[in-house]
Each structure stands twice: as structure tokens, then as C-alpha cells.
Design brief:
2 copies of one chain form a homodimer. By secondary structure, chain A is α+β, with helices and mostly antiparallel strands. Chain A has 2 domains: about 60 residues, Winged helix-like DNA-binding domain superfamily/Winged helix DNA-binding domain (Arc Repressor Mutant, subunit A); about 170 residues, GAF domain (Beta-Lactamase), CATH 3.30.450.40. Helix content of chain A is about 45%, strand content about 20%. In chain A, the strands form 3 sheets. Chain A has a 6-stranded antiparallel beta sheet, sandwiched between helices. A two-stranded antiparallel sheet of chain A has the order 1-2. In chain A, strands 9-10 form a two-stranded antiparallel ribbon. Chain A is elongated, with a radius of gyration of 20 Å. The interface between A and B is large, with 51 and 51 residues. Chain B binds a DNA duplex (30 and 30 nucleotides) through helix 3.
Chain lengths: ~250, ~250
DNA sequence: TTGCCACGTTCGACAATGCTAAACGCCATC
DNA sequence: GATGGCGTTTAGCATTGTCGAACGTGGCAA
């Protein structure tokens, strides 16, 4: 593999460090965390600040992420073809199912939410676009791991942290679930990520029949489940939506 | 001014170029647009791709923005203190006014929307968080230009493009409006940005009495105006919200 | 108040680093 | 099957970013 640009890698590591730490970080913290000389870290931070990728608190001198990232991140959504095609169908799915709809793509070691339609009631909900979900416990993640080889490799390598008592962590168990997912064309998360919350998701394919994302709904078990299983009509609605989006992307339905 | 890191500046320019162009760009396009050798551009792009900031279309080889930007941009929102404090109050404002609420901060030459509450009806609306608005024609922008010296300087230097027949472009006229804005503590956009759309906004101050953002509502003139002027109760509601957020940030109310 | 420490910042010299130009392999097109 | 354009790789040079140390400043404690 050809070598990458050192200063850029360091800058990216800084941005990720700032994104991870809850609070603003000082120059010394950043320099020591990355094993750099203070002057080196400062040079990178100064440039990042000048470009708007980080901001510096005038009082404390500490650094945090900058507004330009928000602007560019939003632009990413605008360009995202899968998201654009899915917009129409996800609204209908939210209306017909009465639940929140999520659209996710593989990113690094998890599922990045690129679209989120609120559950159609008047409750207060927070937008989760841009958030990450784990591959092994969520319906969106299982679908990706079952249909995308890259996602599958990520899942195997990942830690598979148990979130609830029902989280499936053992690799053999996970592989069996993925086999089932491939066979039936959808995946379920029955209180494996959050207690009391279940979800269903189905894969979206592009014109080359490659999985490019997954779409699903999430809701309280009391609403989306019956007798401990996800309601069949919700599964059908999710799969219909996934098929519609896939067709919009150019995938042949047969 | 100390010199910034060249490769980082070039990388940032590439990201902005990719954000500006509607479609994916090829390596040659990028290299020539920035005046770089192809190999130089390729090295930067390869690193950006490895870090997730750009993605390459496998078929065409063209480049586009990457998902990591969305993740980091969303994290910026999570850390944003002004936005966090404003969350509670903007919901109430949307409910009491019946209109969409926007929260903006100065970024580069315009207003960056960091929060957006949909108009509380069941109509389909697109989230505008991360989008930019001009300083000279919008209520959010006028408020910032009137209260933040940096924003004012940006407004003076900007082109002040006319969007509708009512857009105020002449600098003297703008300055008069800003004077009025300072005097009355709020600004209005009466079909100056979009035909048929009007808005009101008021400034938000931090504990040092510095303007850090503006909050306002936007809606169809038929609803938010009466006799060609913005309804007084809406102005009062917006100003109340701005004061509440300011107080939350530590600003003394007197 | 005074001393001290820790912080962000600047400086200057070195060599490692990233840049340039040219050549390569690939694919689509004619 | 030649051709042009594309993204990619290579090799060598000097520009560029890095480093260690010194500077200035602010806050804290004695």
C-alpha cells in the first residue's frame, strides 16, 4: 500500500479525538494523546482552525470541532444518491407503519444513519442522522452484515458488546442469524440493543445487485411485536419499501 | 501571520470544491481546479479517502464527499452549547407561534443553521440544519450583522445578491436597517429572500454580552403578517425566546 | 503580593516529508 | 487495433513539516 500524507492523517486523528472526547480538549491533551510535539499539534490545529474545522474557545484556549464540518456533512447528505431516492418511500413507510424509519449505510465498524423519519405522532424525538449503530445487535446492522462482505468482515472483527440480556455476542450464533437473514430477506432486533425496543430492516440493492444500505423501522415492543414476534404486516411493509428503493436505484426486481 | 500547513489547506480546498460541485469530480478536474499536479492531488485524495472524508465511485473513479464528514458534523451539533441550551425553548416557540423555528450562528460569509424545528403541522418539510443563509436578506442574518462586528464586516464585504424585488442591496440602506435592528432589538425579512415568505429574528447573547447567534421564525406572509407588517405577538414570542436562551447561557437580563 | 507551574504560542534548524514531472496500465471510443 | 483520456505509480529533489527548547501569560497557592 502506498503511503499516505502524514499531516493529513494526524489532522484526521485530531478531529476524531475531538469528536470522541465529550468536552473541549487542550493543546497539551491533544499532543500527548497522539504522541506529538506540542508545536506540531499546534501547527495542525492552527490550520484546521483557519479552515473552520476546529474552533478555539477564546477564554480557555481549548479546542473543539468547527462549524465547517457541519456544513460539509450536510452537503454529503445532499449528494447521497441512495438517500435521495429513499426520501419518498421512507415517508410512506413511516405513515403506514406508524413507527420511526431509519436508513443506514456501512461506515467503518458500524451503521451510519443517513436518514431518519420521525414516528408520526406529536411526541418529542431527536434526529439521529449522522449517528452510528452497531452491526451485531441492530436490524439495520444485521442486514448489512448479511449482505455486504465488507460489513461481514467488520462484524467478525468487532467486539460485539452486549447491550441487553438478549444481545447475541457469540460469533457462531451471529453467523446463524446472518444465515437466517439471507434466507428470509430481512433481519430483526428484538430488544437486543435497547430494552423494550425492537426493529426490522431489509436490504437495499443497487443496479449491480450489491447491497448499498438497509432500511427499517424501530419502535416499542408493545407496538411492533405480537406474541414476542415482530408483526408480519410491518415486516412486509419494510421489505416493500426496500424493494421500491432498490428498484429506484436501478436494481432489477427479478 | 504564521504559515499554515500546505497539505491541509489543499485538502480543505478539495473538500470545499467537492461540496460546491453538484456532481462527483474526477481527479483531473480537481487537480486543474486547484492548480496542482495530478499526483499531488491524488496523494491528498488517497489519504482523505482512507480517513473516510471522501469516497470514490468504483465505476467511474470519480470522487465525492465521504461519510465521516457527516458523522463529525453531527458530533459538532452534539457539542454545540448554544444549540443545547436552545433546544427546549425553540420547541415552545414553534408550538406557540405555529411556525418553523431556526437557530443560526455566523459562519464564514453567512448564517449557518444549527437547529431547525419544523412547523407544527403534518406537512412535509426538509431539515435545513447545516445549510447557509445570506446575511443581508434574512432576519437571522440581519440580527447577526447588527450585533456582531465580525458579521457586520462580512456583510459589508459580501456581494448582497438580490433574491426578490424587495431585497435590500444598497449598503446605505442596509446600514439603516441594521441601525433600526439594534434600536428595536429584532429584525424582519419581509419577502426579501423568498417571495411569499417572511421571518423575524432576535439576538442571543452570552455571559459576556456578546452576540453568539440568532433565533427566529419563518413562514408564509399570509400567516405571519397582517397589513404588510409582521404580527406583533410573533415578534414578542421570538424576543422572549431569545431572552430565555440568553439567560440560559449566563447573560444577565439587565 | 509573590512565586510558581502549566498552558498556548513562537522560534530556528534539521531532515524527513510531501511535492513535481514523467511514465505506466487501463478502459472506452473511434 | 490505434488513440486519447483517465486514475495510478514511480523516483528524486528540495520544499515542508517536524521537533526541542525557549517565550509570554494566566491562574493558583503559599
Amino acid at each position: 500500500m502506498a503511503k499516505n500524507i502524514q499531516s493529513l492523517e494526524r489532522a484526521a486523528a485530531m478531529l476524531r479525538l475531538l469528536a470522541g472526547g465529550e468536552r473541549r480538549l487542550g493543546l497539551s491533551d491533544i499532543a500527548s494523546a497522539l504522541g506529538l510535539a506540542k508545536a506540531t499539534a499546534h501547527g495542525i490545529l492552527r490550520t484546521l482552525q483557519h479552515e473552520g474545522f476546529v474552533e478555539q474557545d477564546p477564554g480557555s484556549g481549548r479546542y473543539q470541532l468547527g462549524a465547517e464540518l457541519l456544513r460539509l456533512g450536510t452537503t454529503y447528505l445532499d449528494v447521497h444518491e441512495l438517500r435521495a431516492r429513499a426520501l419518498v418511500w421512507t415517508d410512506d413507510l413511516a405513515r403506514s407503519s406508524g413507527e420511526a424509519v431509519y436508513l443506514g449505510v456501512l461506515h467503518q465498524h458500524g451503521v451510519l444513519i443517513v436518514h431518519h423519519v420521525f414516528r408520526p405522532d406529536d411526541s418529542r424525538q431527536v434526529l439521529e442522522v449522522g449517528a452510528m449503530q452497531p452491526l451485531h445487535s441492530t436490524a439495520l446492522g444485521k442486514v448489512l452484515a448479511a449482505t455486504d462482505p465488507v460489513a461481514h468482515a467488520e462484524l467478525v472483527d468487532a467486539k460485539r458488546e452486549p447491550f441487553t440480556s438478549r444481545t447475541i455476542s457469540d460469533l457462531d450464533d451471529v453467523e446463524r442469524i446472518l444465515e437466517l437473514t439471507r434466507a428470509q430477506g430481512y433481519a430483526v432486533d428484538n430488544e437486543e440493543t435497547l430494552d423494550g425496543v425492537a426493529s426490522v430492516a431489509a436490504p437495499i440493492y443497487d443496479r449491480r445487485r450489491m447491497a448499498v444500505g438497509s432500511v427499517g423501522i424501530t419502535g416499542a415492543v408493545e407496538r411492533v411485536c405480537r406474541d414476542g414476534e415482530l408483526r408480519a404486516e410491518l415486516i412486509a411493509a419494510v421489505r416493500d419499501t426496500a424493494r421500491s428503493v432498490s428498484r429506484d436505484l436501478g436494481a432489477k426486481p427479478f
